[in-house]
Amino acid sequence: MPRSVNAGALSRALLGLLVPAVLYIPGVLFAQAPMFPDQIGAYEKSSPTTLATPERYLYQEYGLEATEQAIYTAPDKRRFTATGWRMHDSTGAMALFQLRRPSGATAAKFAPLAVTTSDGVIYAYGNYVFQFTGGQPDNKDLNRFYNQLPKFENSLLPLLSQSLPPEDLVPNSERYILGPVSLQRFTPAIPPSVAAFRFGSEGQLGKYNTPKGLMTLVIFNYPAPAMARDQSVEFQKIAGAAVKRTGPLVAIILSPPDPDAAERLLGKINYRAQVTETEKVPVNEIKGFAGQLVNIFILAGLVIVLCFVAGLGFGGFRVLRRKLSKRDDPDAMTVLNIRYTLATDAPPGPTDASSATEAPPK
Question: What is the phi/psi pair of residue 42, to 5°?
């Protein structure tokens, strides 16, 4: 005989298949939302294209999620090419910005991470990296464009990105290290096991000018000073490396052309813990006392209103019960109609003649 099917089990199985599908479809549609709108200001968008990733594994380590490129044309034939990369977070966008900016770019002021190139601009905005070539939209139009960005994220950038000493730093030489791929790409002499990315470490690289040639400095940040202390011992085992640990930071210069310059550069790296204290908001005592008085009056008014409403309700209930009840109210007050009469016209009593005595004549 065929086995009976449990309706409850079948419904639960179908529900288990349906719910993930319903949750997955909006996510796919949202992830495939276009990065650039159909119009930016007076510029109309052409058919967008997806860019090929030249260094796929490096971009994946940085958290690449989507790319898009489109050409925008204005009615007066002006045009520009817009290219965008959406990363998983702002740190990945900063790392990609450092990677893609040309060595001869100059810093721009319209964004914290922005440079001007020979044919346009490239900058990071939140977890996005944008590049405009041949022209650039107005800031007012760009602000409207930013409000439509899908999956936008704008977290704080790591403090490690600001730890490189600025003196003698080669412009646009910074590179951010998030894992073994970027470590191999920018400083292959450091083994991934020594960098210990399993602890959640990250690195910031920069190149410096010295009288005897370029010098590469890498600063790694670890979650705890104890981890940095243990890994600094491993860094010192690399031949020709100058290493310094300060707090959770480990700075290393590989094969410096000038050992004295390397020591001076390492001496500029000092970790300073930043403690944020919540300040007490000043309170106006007079204003606070006045507010307390107002609250007292309000509370007293509420109590009076509640008492009045309660009295009306109780009295109305008693009257209504007396009218609707067929029996006498046992709690009713008994009134005695007693009248008292005061007699004021009583007849005179008998006269005792014998008691009347005339006074003797004198």
Answer: -90, 0
Please state which architecture CATH assigns to domain 158-271.
Answer: 3-Layer(aba) Sandwich (3.40)
Q: What local confidence, expressed as pLDDT, does residue 333 receive?
A: 62
8 A C-beta contact, residue 220 and residue 269: no
Residue 18 scores a pLDDT above 80: no
The residues, ordered by sequence, that sit 6+ positions from 72 with a Cβ below 8 Å of its Cβ are 40, 43, 44, 45, 46, 79, 80, 81, 82, 137
Locate tokens 């209504």: which residue? 320
Q: Greatest CA span in the chain, whole angstroms?
A: 169
Amino acid at 7: A
Q: Is 346 helix (H, G, I), strand (E, B) or coil?
A: coil
For 95, 113, 244, the CA distances from 193, given in Å and listed in that order, are 21, 31, 18
Q: In 3-state terms, what secondary structure has residue 138? A: coil
- Percentage above 90 pLDDT, the chain: 59
- What is the C-alpha to C-alpha distance for residues 306 and 300, in angstroms, rounded to an integer? 10
Closest of 207, 228, 229 to residue 217, by C-alpha: 207
DSSP assignment of 11-40, as one string?
A: HHHHHHHHHHHHHHHHHHHHHTS-SS-SEE
| pLDDT reading at 328 higher than 60 | no
Which residues partner with 217 through β-bridges? 206, 253
Separation between Cα atoms, residue 56 and residue 264, nearest integer Å: 38
Instruction: Tell me the two tokens of residue 329.
Output: 């109210």
* Residue 257 neighbours by CB distance under 10 Å: 13
Query: Can you give the residue ranges of every domain in the chain?
Result: 21-156, 158-271
The three-point CA angle 158-162-164 to 5° equals 130
pLDDT in tens, 39-57: 999 999 988 887 888 899 9
Q: Do 49 and 70 touch, CB atoms closer than 8 A?
A: yes
- Amino acid of residue 268: K
The confidence score (pLDDT) of residue 262 equals: 95
- Report pTM: 0.67
